[in-house]
Structures are given as C-alpha cells and as structure tokens.
Amino acid sequence: MKAMSVQMSDLPLAENLTYRIGKIKADRFWIQTPDGRMLQIDTDTKRVLERLAAHQEIQSISDELGVEAEDISNFLEMLGLAPAMGFILVDETKGERARRDLSDHEGERRNQFLIPWIERRWFMGGMGLAIVLSIIGVFQFIVHAPLIFVGSIKDLWLVAGCLTISVIIHEIGHLLTMPRNRNISISVQWSGPIPLLSIICNEAWKLSKWQRIRINLAGFVADLLVAGIGAAIGLLVEEATPWIWTFLFAHIIRMIFALWPFLPGDGYWMLVDLFDQPNLWANATSQLKRLKMSWLSLYALGRIVFLGLIWLLYAYVIFMWTNALTGRTWAEVLFFFLHPVPLLITLNLLYMLIAFGMKSGKFLKKSVRKIKLIT
Q: What is the pTM of this model?
C-alpha cells in the first residue's frame, strides 16, 4: 500500500468550515471551531494555523517553523479537520472588528455577563460581606452546636436531597458569572469513580484571566453561601442540629473536592488560568513520560497517585460491603441499599461497568476492522 500526497490548494474550500481566532493576551489566542468549541492556543500554533488556512502543505510548515509534522496532524484532528481539508480562518485580531471604541466596549461589558452588575463595586462589596458572614456563621455553628448526625433512611434521603440542591446552586454560581451566550452546555465527566457535573461555556476563553478565575471560584462562593445559610438555620433552630451537621459534613467535603487540583474540577481550572496552561494535563503527562523534572511532571505524578488511591478506596468499600452482605437475607440487602450512599455508589459502579463494556466492544470492533484491512 503506497502513501498518497494531496496538494491542499487542489481541493475545494469547505465554505461551511469557518474558524474564528481572537486575542486573549500578547502570546495567547482563542480559536472557535464551527461546532462552537473554544480552544486556547499560543503564538506558534497560530502561525501553523495561518499557514494551514493558506493551503500550505504540512511538511512544508514543519520544515519552515520547526514543528513536528505529527504534532500538526494531531492539531488538525483536534480541530476536526482532515490533513488535506480546506477551511476559512477569520482572524479577529486584525482589522476594525478587533478595534472597538471605549464607549462601545463599556456598553458591551455591561451586557456581557448573565449578571449585568457583576463588575460593579457595590455588588462585589456585597458578595464579600456575604462570604465573611457565611464563614463566621459556619464557624459559630461548628463551635457551639453539639456534634449529632441523623441515622434514619428518611432523614438521610432528606439530607441527600438538600445536597443535590446545593450541587445545582454550585453550578448556577458558575453560570451567573459566565458571558451571555447560547453555546452553554452541561456535561458529566468521571475522575476515577467520582462523577463530576460541569457547565461548559467555550466563550469563556475570550475573557481575561481574572474573569476566568472568577468563573472558577463562583461555585465555591455559592457553596460558602449555602453553608452559611445552613449554619444560620442550625443556630436559630436547635432541633435542626442533626440535619445541619450531616449536611455540612458532606457539603464541606464536596467543597474541598471541588477545589482539589488533582480532580478535573474547579481546582484544576484554577491552575490552568493562573499559570496560563490551557493544555495542563496533556503537557504534564507529556513531561512525566519524558522524565522531565518540573512542576508539571510533579503535578501529573501527584494526580495519578491520588486517583490510584481513590480507586483503591472505592474497591475497598465495594469489597467490605460485599463481605458484609454475604449470607444476609434479601430483606436485609434491600434495606441496606435503601440508604442513599450505598445506592448511589452501586448505580455509579453499574454505569461504569456498562460504559466500560460499550467502550471495550467498540475497541474490539475497530481492532477487527483493522485486522481485516491488513489481511
């Protein structure tokens, strides 16, 4: 089988494939794909993209810029392009589109976010005061309220419902600090056995570093406010202490996990924006594979070790539950799985097993197809 070379200039231009590029800072740019996805690239990648849009061959670009041809091909794949496919590149860093006068810019800023007054001093001051009062309230509750947890199934499900509402409020916190845009979606991703709910707004890449960090912190701020409200209820209504303690215990653990940088949540994106590393995990694993000593490789190692420990803990819990339920009656097993934590963990395990089976099936089909092509 011979390799076939195709000149990009000989191919018809795909008019529907329009990519837009804009400036974030001196050496950082955003690129928006036709399907609405946003990526962040550096100056060198921008040069590659401009030459690809001008129908220059991959090998020629590689020789001219000193970039590996394989890296260029991988970049094209990330953009959803075949190596010899034409496309349109609209560079919004040039021309009148990138130069707005001050009055237009200020008008746009006022309407840029879902909360129009989010950057007003009075709003930021009010949020700061609310955060301080919430922290004081939680501290007061922890110090003065007796440590009592609920134990009945009914009470546990009530707390689980409140925790579900707190997760929704967390995501709403992110949403309210995002730009006004229709390309906002919700996704569920897994980090080891832990499911993570995320609201995705690709337009956020067009914002400044501080504005992106504000989006990352918004969920944590919402969590603090919810914790403060819960603590206030516990201080005012003494009979609610067991429910509030149970709620706050689980809620605070979830807050820590949300900001934990070894999970692909808010803490990870804080590192991405603080250190201008849009491909943090990919760069970190690449440096670890090359045994290059840097904070990125140490981050990759720490994340791998942490996720390994999470998987071990998860496996240990499943093992202990299996042993504890062995020999029990069906009624006892059913009663056990009526509790929120065992039920949710079991459903999570079943989901992962089904997803793993489907992924393995697709991999086997792909492997069989490749073998048939070779033979």
A: 0.70
